[in-house]
Design goal:
heterodimer, A: alpha+beta, Cyclophilin, 2 domains, about 25% strand, B: alpha+beta, 4 helices, 20 strands, about 30% strand
């Protein structure tokens, strides 16, 4: 895994930790960006971690591009000697899988899909050798996911499942993007899940919908009053399958300003994970129960 | 003081110098696409360079003033009129209480910046008054203006009517437009032949050109260096593992039509980028109309920094002349 540094014009440095996605590449990016944030270098205006890369925006009137590059490369060495431990939080996200709204949208854009005769969830279950919709839901919600990037549009999380590569769910994007996706759709493209923070165009497969808003520019949602976006890179997500009744109930509670997501602090170690994936995940998810 | 929006124009939004600092959670910088013109308009009416103004695309709005104010219109050649009487661009003029500011047909450029003494006083959201319509954030209720909107205006300073920015300091794209670009990012993904034709060809601004990004067509497609797709990237040769997109970066989905991301950029995605338009030339993109012939010009970092310094000197000269 060789780190590649390149300038994005006179205001950005783009750093590719690895060409391919892996938890190691994501962690490398997290550790360098954390070191960079702590270094408080004058002239750095934005630090944006992504899946297997990250980007730094700087003001070249304050710090010369070559000097910025030199300092960033020096930080890689510092970050590499740090333990791959992340103090973060786990957030439970209720999902109504195979819901009527994404189903209706999927049907409207069926001619843009690889398999017009089935649904997104059936198709993805089949190409991943999962046992139908139930088998898919079990695999999707059975292990936690890392928020490996927030972006595209405001507050939209990309998520990478914390399982080995053989167990990664993979699916292509739609052949041609849809012009519509319901707000709060749980989607999937390549090896990444996402939650559409706003309604709009999209090309990811649609598996379900969450009743839990994750972006609120008006900040009226009870748990988004302090900040309008819920997710940040490094958060861990556990999907919780729910049915129609719980979906409707949660929507009503959110609207009434009474609902709070289940969130718990958790420490994640890449070394521990590498030794025992399922054990680590069980411990991480258990944190939601206060353990 | 307030302004009544009688007609909104095509897509008029409140913008200032932008909202940096939130790109890591997908909130783009926003702000005027041609900030040099935006700053000049503010300075003409005695505002701080970064006060909020109206950015009007292709077609101006119709605005009724409820108090006297000083107004200046810069950027595109979008002739302002007060109660039907034409006023010069790049020049401060008075609008009296009850008068209506309207606009003639666009003659040149794409975006007019309408500054009003005191600035458009919408609430500051995450440090800026700029509108980010995709996220329904900032500006006037997070959206483009509509008829019937009432825009709050701050208290202005007293400046003289008729102050003007001299012709030599009004920057505009040439014909063809030239956008300087620093190759980089995933430049190595295209073939040597493609890296030549990209700069040789004259591209044309496509109809899909807005605050998110400008698409260009009519150049030869770019071929890719063969590879085995990396895990998580996707099968198209232009795919990468979803990454951040620098502001100004040039992505070329499937190697066909380059897209330069602008102020309301999608902050990331899965298409490789072959370089970045230098910061000094981003203003010019904001003034390109669809079909405008455009060439990308390869530059070094040193040239990019010289261009940046030249732009800053232009702004300083405008500020000095109007101080």
């Amino acid at each position: 895994m060789t780190t590649r540094y390149t300038f994005g014009g006179d205001e950005h440095i783009f750093v590719e930790c690895s060409e391919e996605m892996s938890l190691e590449a994501f962690f490398k990016g997290m550790s360098i960006t954390t070191a960079l944030r702590n270094a408080k270098i004058k002239g750095v205006t934005e630090i944006c971690p992504a899946n297997a890369s990250f980007q730094v925006r700087f003001n070249p009137d304050i710090i010369a591009p070559d000097e910025m590059m030199r300092q960033l490369k020096a930080l890689e060495a510092v970050a590499q000697s740090a333990p791959s431990t992340l103090n973060t939080r786990i957030i439970e996200v209720p999902v109504y899988y195979n819901d009527p709204w994404t189903h209706e949208t999927g049907q409207r854009f069926r001619e843009r899909h690889q398999d017009p005769t089935s649904t997104d969830i059936e198709y993805t279950a089949r190409i991943n050798n999962l046992d139908g919709i139930d088998g898919f839901i079990k695999a999707h919600s059975g292990a936690p996911w890392f928020v490996s990037m927030v972006g595209f549009v405001a507050g939209l999380p990309f998520l990478y499942q914390m399982v080995d590569r053989d167990r990664q769910i993979q699916s292509p994007k739609y052949l041609r993007p849809r012009t519509d996706t319901p707000r709060l759709t749980v989607g999937h493209g390549g090896c990444f899940a996402c939650i559409y923070s706003v309604r709009g165009a999209g090309g990811y497969q649609m598996f379900g919908i969450t009743p839990m808003p994750i972006y609120d520019p008006n900040q009226t949602t009870s748990y988004l009053r302090d900040f309008m976006c819920l997710f940040k890179p490094g958060d861990i997500v556990k999907w919780k399958p729910i049915g129609r009744e719980e979906y409707d109930h949660t929507v009503a509670e959110v609207d009434a300003g009474r609902w709070q997501p289940r969130i718990a602090p958790v420490t994640f170690s890449l070394e521990e994970f590498a030794k025992d994936i399922d054990g680590t995940n069980a411990r991480v998810m258990e944190a939601l129960n206060g353990h | 003081m307030a302004i009544n929006v009688l007609k909104p124009g095509l897509s008029t939004t409140v913008q200032d110098l932008g909202r940096p600092g939130y790109y890591h959670i997908g909130i783009p910088t926003s702000g005027g696409m041609d900030t040099l013109s935006l700053a000049a308009a503010n300075l003409l009416v005695g505002n701080d360079a970064g006060a909020a103004v109206l950015e009007a695309v292709f077609m101006g709005p119709e605005l009724e003033f409820t108090q006297d104010a000083m107004v200046a219109v810069t950027g595109a050649d979008l002739p302002p009129k007060v109660d039907g009487q034409e006023q010069p661009c790049w020049t401060a003029f008075n609008v009296k209480k009850g008068q209506v500011l309207s606009f003639g047909f666009l003659k040149k450029g794409a975006r007019g910046y309408i500054a009003v003494s005191g600035g458009i006083d919408v609430p500051v959201v995450l440090g800026s008054r700029s509108t980010y319509t995709l996220g329904a954030l900032g500006g006037f209720e997070g959206r483009k203006l509509a008829a019937g909107d009432v825009l709050p205006v701050g208290k202005g300073a007293l400046v003289a009517e008729g102050r003007s920015v001299v012709e030599a300091l009004r920057r505009a794209p040439g014909a063809p437009a030239e956008l300087r670009m620093l190759p980089g990012l995933y430049w190595h993904r295209i073939t040597e032949q493609a890296s030549k034709t990209f700069f040789e060809d004259t591209w044309k601004v496509a109809p899909e050109a807005d605050r998110i990004g400008y698409r260009f067509k009519a150049g030869r497609p770019l071929d890719f260096v063969p590879r085995t797709p990396p895990f998580g990237a996707g099968s198209d040769p232009s795919n990468i593992v979803d990454a951040c997109y620098p502001y100004g970066s040039v992505q070329v989905p499937s190697g066909t039509e380059p897209i330069v991301l602008h102020r309301d950029a999608v902050s990331g995605g899965g298409y490789m980028m072959i370089g970045t338009v230098v910061s000094a030339d981003m203003d010019l993109i904001g003034q390109l109309q669809p079909h405008t012939p455009t060439k990308f010009v390869k530059v070094t970092m040193e040239q990019a920094l010289t261009a940046r310094a030249d732009r800053r000197k232009t702004l300083e000269a405008i500020a000095k002349a109007l101080a």
